[in-house]
Amino acid sequence: MEATPEGSAEWSEPGLYTVAPGVHRIPLPLPNDGLRAVNVYALTEGSDLVLIDSGWALDEAREQLAAALKGLGAELGDVSQFLVTHVHRDHYTQAVALRREFGGRIALGSLEEPSLRMTADPDVVPLIGQIRLLRMCGADPVADELVRVFEIHGRNTEASIWEQPDEWLTPGRRSVLPSRQLDVVHTPGHTAGHVVFDDGAAGLMFTGDHVLPHITPSIGFQPAVAEMPLRDFLDSLRLVRGMPDRRMLPAHGPVADSVHARVDELLDHHAQRLDVIATTIVDGAATAYESALRLGWTRRQRKLGELDVFNQMLAVLETAAHLDLLVHQGKLALLVEDGVRRYSVA
C-alpha cells in the first residue's frame, strides 16, 4: 500500500493518506457502525513511529493497519507509543491487543481512569449506569429493550480486552518524536477524560471525537456517569475555540481546514437544541423520554422509535443532558418523583 494525498478518496476508504509531512491518516473499519470508520494517525520521523488512537481490536482492522504501516516501511511491532484520545473501544482496544503481542506504550487521559476501571471489572454489568439513567429519564421501554437486546443480566464477559495504560496523560506539552511536540489538552464532554493533541508547530489538532466534521458527538457515554456532561462539553468547545485555529484531524470523517469553524457550528447547534428541548417542556413534556419522543433525530429528523435501541439510548440521554443544563441555567425546574426526573418551566 502506497501513501496517497489526503482528500484523494472517500474518507472511510481503506488506505494510507498523507496529511502533512510525517503525518498520515489510516481509516480503519468498525463493525456494523454508522460511523463507518475510525481514523488512526501515524506520526513518523526516521524509524520512529507513534500512533494517535489505535482502532477497534478486530482482525480486519489489524490487517488494514498492518498494510498501511507497510506503506511507511514499518510493521505493527514498530509502534513505540499509542496516544489515545479517549477510552471508547474503537480508539483503545487495538492498542491493548498490539501491546500484548509486541510491546509499545499506551497513554490515556488521566480522568478516564474511573471508567476504564469499571469497564475492566468482570463484576460490573455493561451499560448498567446507562440503564439506571434511562429509568430516571422515564424511559423504561428503552431500558427494557436494551437489557433484552444486549442480554444485560450478568457478568461482564468482555472485561479481559481492557487493560490499564502505561501512562496517564495530564495537560501540558510532551515530546512524542525527536522533532515533534504535542500539547495535551483536556476536553471533557464526550467522555470525562477525553483529550485532544495540539501540534502548534505544524498547525494541526488531533481532535478525537471532541470535534467531528459531520456529526455531533454523543455526550457523556461512559461507565462512570458524569454529573453534567453537556456543560463540560460546551466549556471544552469554548476552550478549543480560544486556542489558535488549526487544521482539524478528527477521529471520524475527513480532515478539515479549520477547527474553529466547526466549533462555531457545534456551539450554534447546541444553543438551538437547548431552545427546542426547552420548548418541549413548555408544550407539556415532563421527562427526558417524553421530550425525546417529540424531537427529530439525525439529519433526517427521524422519530425516536425509528432508531435502533442503542441510538434511542443515546438520544434520551442526550436530551437529559440538555434538560439538566437548562435546570443549571435556571430556565427549568426539576422535581424527582418515584425515582424519575421531571421538569417544568422555572
From TrEMBL:
GO terms for molecular function: hydrolase activity. Pfam families: Lactamase_B (PF00753). SMART domains: Lactamase_B. It comes from the Bacteria. Keywords: Hydrolase. InterPro entries: Metallo-B-lactamas (IPR001279), RibonucZ/Hydroxyglut_hydro (IPR036866), Sec-metab_biosynth-thioest (IPR050662), WH-like_DNA-bd_sf (IPR036388). Residues 37-252 form the Metallo-beta-lactamase domain. PANTHER family: ENDORIBONUCLEASE LACTB2, METALLO-BETA-LACTAMASE SUPERFAMILY POTEIN. This is Zn-dependent hydrolase, glyoxylase.
